[in-house]
Every structure is written in structure tokens, then in C-alpha cells.
Amino acid sequence: MTSAVVTTAADSTTSLVQTIDWLAIAPPVVVAAAALIVLVADLFLPAERKPLLGWVTMAGLAAGLALLVPLRDGDRSTFCLTAATTGTGATGPCSYTADHFALVIQALVLGGALLTALLSLGETRRLPAGEFWFLLLSSASGAALLPAARDLATLVVALEVASLPAFALVGIKRGDRRSSEAALKFFLSSVVATAVMLLGVSFVYAATGTLHLTEIAARLDDVPGQLDTLARTGVVLTLVGFAFKTAAAPFHFWVPDTYVGAPLPVAAYLSVVGKAVGFSGLILVTVIAFPAHADVWGPALAVLAALTMTIGNVAALRQNATRVRSAVRLLAWSSVAQAGYLLVPIAAAAYSSDEHIGSTVAYALMYAVVNLGAFAVAALVARTNPGNRLSDYRGLYATRPLAALAMAFFLLCLAGLPPGIVGLFAKVTVFSAAVDAGLGWLAVVMAVNVVIALYYYLQWTAALFRAPEEAPAQAPADEAAPADAAVPAPAGHRAPAPVTLAIALTAVVGVVLSGAPQTILRFAAVNLF
Q: Are 459 and 319 in contact (CB under 8 A)?
């Protein structure tokens, strides 16, 4: 640990700059440093050496993950207000805390980014490699910073650092109209949500006079009557920004087009890392900063959860199997529905104890593993079927049996059916959180939605093992495969090693967790805050 001291004319010994714990902030800092290295190296590497940038990216993300190990005790904080600045003679609140919650989410974020990089190794030959890897690392560094942020200013900055590079990643396919439209829709809707959230943050600051989450919680308990409406409005508006990041209805409209227009690895990244960023920020502001207004955000999140899971599942149910990129579109709507399930324990925390937050984190970890696996299989199928229709998966077992088995396992996990025990376990914990909190109506809505989801997950799973079609129907002219798609590989073409490794890793982790599903809950729930 190192420290710096700044003196004033009034007091030459007063420390105004906080002690900096460099180990605590090392994971996001190392990833950000790797981004700068990639940016500079891209200027000097010849085109044939550009693939090295992908390996540098993976090394930076792996180093960030490794640096979480020395922090496993979850007891480090830095950028704390000093005794001089608080005026109380004691150290004040901190802006960065590496507690167990932060470490779990950072592991999820950096692990998800690492798998995204693995999936992208063979895809960047059609993309500007240096820009792609720099943007991915920049977004990952912001995503790793956010769960450790403990003041609203750091929270907002981390959220934007994670989001702004993601806009560029979505639109990185130059000359592709679909990609550009997706990036523009994503950008405009995100900017509006961020503006609303910043207005809410300003209202909260005006009502409390502080940006630190723990201080806000203490002062919201004693807000003067004339500021109560301002404080409640600030709470609601602040939640809007995070509701957008989590793709909660009615802020979900950007998801399908964005996932379809983005490169497949970027869609996978947004579905896992982008969602983790939104949910971690939502947990921090509700559970730590706004417990005094649980009567405001609790019912609001419960309603959002019900709407989100219902809209996502019904839209996924209506997907046409022969439509171009219908497989990605179904995964997009599925991610919206999964966001509804993830919101349930957060809403339950408003009515009972904060222990239900562990259910959200456990579900997020399960979802991250199996959803990244599903996108990895989709990336493999896209090499021989660039249109990536649901109908393209028919008979996959006949041509790629291991990929079909892995995809079936991932889909069953998402559905919550054996042998995907980890998915069933995660859904049961979320369901129990709603029941324990007295939200029986929400538990009923969730049960109905789980049944709805079974139909399209099982339909897709069954298609994997059906006999292949002898002559696939020709797509209409307006539904032709996208011009930027890869040239189809021969049916027996060997799968790229990075994609195969990504599928294998996610499948192995999913199987291990299905063998000991309680492990993920213990890992996520112990001493989160």
C-alpha cells in the first residue's frame, strides 16, 4: 500500500489524498493497461502479426483473473475519505471496496470477457483487429470496476466505461447496414437512459449532500419533509439507467436488433458481461444506498420482473425457425426472460433480508456459463450456415454429435431441466426467494413463464437430434444470409480450436456445477456485503 500527502497553508500536516491500495484495484487496472498496450502495439505490428493482439488480450484478462486470488478474503478498501476530510477524527466511507460481492462479479465479468476473446480469435480476420481488442479490454475494465464502486460518481463512470466501447463493438463491422443500425439504436437508447439516471443521481445528491452509498443510506433515513419527494424521484430515476442495462421491460427493446446486428462474440459478451454490469449496479444502489426507500423500488422491481420474463418468453415463443438469424434472436429474447428471473431476488430483498441477493448472483453465474456455451455453439454452426436459422440446427447430432450434445445440455440448463441440474437449482433458489419474501403472485408468474420457456427450449433441443433435411428450403430474397457472413465451410470441416475450447470449457463447468449445484450458491452467497 502506498499513500500520498497534499498540504495546505492552513495545516501543513493534513492528509487530503487517500491511501491507495494498489493490490485491491489491480484487476481492473491490469485490464486497462492491457488495453493501452494493444492500442499502441496495433500501430506498429504488420497485418500478418495482428493475431498476436488477441493473445495479448487473453493474457491481460487472465492476469486480471489471477489477481483476484490474493483478494479472496474480501476485506480491502481504498480511496477512503480521511479523518481530515470527514472532520470526525475517523476514516470515512470508501469509494472502492474489494469485498466478496465485488470479487464474485469481477470473476464473472473477466471470465466472460476471456471466453468472448477466445470465441473472437478466429473472427477478427474480418474486423479491424486492433480496434476490436482495445474496445473489448476497455469495456471489460469498466465492467470489472463497477461492482467494487461504492459511490455514485464512480458507479456512473464505470458504467459508461463499460458501455461506450460496447457501442463501437456492436457497429464494428464496417459497411454492414444491420450492424450500424444496431449500434445506433443501442447508443441512442443508452444515452437517454444514462441522462435519466444522471438526473436521478443529481436529485439524490441534492437530497442527501453525499455520493457515497453508505452515507446516502444513512441520510435518506432522515431527509427533511420538503425533500422527500425529490429523494423518491431520484431513487426511481436512478433505477431507470440500470433497468436499461439489465434489459428489463420496458427498456428491453434494443436487445434483439443489437444482438442480431453485432458479431456473435460481441452478442455473447453483451448477454453475459453487459447483464452482469447492470445487475451489480442495480444491487449496489438498491441494497446499499436505497434501503430506506425499499417501499419504492421493491414493488417497482417486482412488476418489472414479471413484465420482463413474460415479454421475453412470449417473444421467444413466436420466433420463426426459417428466419435469418432466428437462433440469435431467440437467444436474445431468452436473455430478456432470464433478466426477469434475475430481478426476482433483488425485489425480494426489499421485503425481507439481503441474503436473497446471493440467489441473483448464483443465477447470474449459472446463466453466464451456459449462455456463453450456447453462443459458442451458435458461432460454430454459423461457419457452415451463415444465416444461423433455428432450422439450421436440425440434425446437428448427425454431423457434429459433441456440439449437439453440448447445445442440448446448455438449453436444458436454461430451461431448468435435468441433466442441467444447475439450471434447475438456480431457478428453485430464485423461486424460493419470492416465496420467502411473501411475493406469492410473482412466484406464480415465474412458474407460468418457466412452463412457457420449456416449449421453445425443448423444441430447439429436439431439433438437434432429428434427421437432417435433405434439401433445405430456399430463403426469400429479403431473408438471404447477410453479406458480411463468413463463407460457409464444408459440412465436415474441422471446428476451429478456440471455438471448440470455449464449448468444452463451458460444458465442463456446467457439468461440474450440475454435480454439485450447492457450490455455486455457497460461493455467491457467503458474506456478499
A: no
Q: What integer pLDDT is reported at residue 83 of this predicted model? A: 56
Amino acid at 327: A
Q: Which amino acid is at 186?
A: F
DSSP annotation of 438 reads T
C-alpha cell recorded at residue 338: 432470464
Type and span of the H or E element at 454: helix 440-464
**383-416 tens-digit pLDDT:** 888 888 999 999 899 999 999 999 999 999 999 8
8 A C-beta contact, residue 55 and residue 109: no
* Residues 283 and 418 sit within 8 Å (Cβ to Cβ): no
Who contacts 367 (Cβ-Cβ below 8 Å, separation ≥6)? 272, 275, 338, 342, 414, 426
Average pLDDT across the chain, whole number: 85
Q: Which three cell numbers stand for residue 130?
A: 486492433
**Amino acid 133: pLDDT:** 94
3-state helix, strand, coil in the chain (%, to 5): 70, 5, 25
For 105-138, the pLDDT digits (tens) are 999 999 999 999 999 887 766 778 889 999 999 9
Q: Does pLDDT of 66 surpass 50?
A: yes
12 CB-contact burial (10 Å; exposed 0-12 / middle 13-18 / buried 19+): exposed
Written as nine digits, the cell of 243 is 433497468
* Residues 381 and 326 sit within 8 Å (Cβ to Cβ): no
Give the other-Cβ count within 10 Å of 381's Cβ.
23
Q: Compute φ and ψ for 229, nearest 5 degrees.
A: -65, -40
Distances (CA, A) of 322 to 63, 388, 478: 43, 9, 12
Nearest to 405 by CA among 477, 259, 506, 301: 506
Pairwise CA distance, residues 335 & 327, whole Å: 12
In contact, 422 and 513? CB cutoff 8 Å: yes
Contact predicate 368/111, CB 8 Å: yes
287 DSSP 8-state letter:
I
- Quick one: which of 369, 367, 348 has its CA closest to 430? 348
pLDDT band at 464, cuts 50/70/90?
Answer: very high
- The closest of 439, 101, 123, 102 to 299, measured between CA atoms, is 439
CA distances (Å), origin 16, targets 133, 153, 166, 418: 37, 19, 36, 57
Share of the chain above pLDDT 90, in %: 47
Answer whether 335's CB lies under 8 Å from 371's CB. yes
Listed residue (491, 475, 485, 477) closest to 322, CA to CA: 475
Residue with cell 483487429: 129
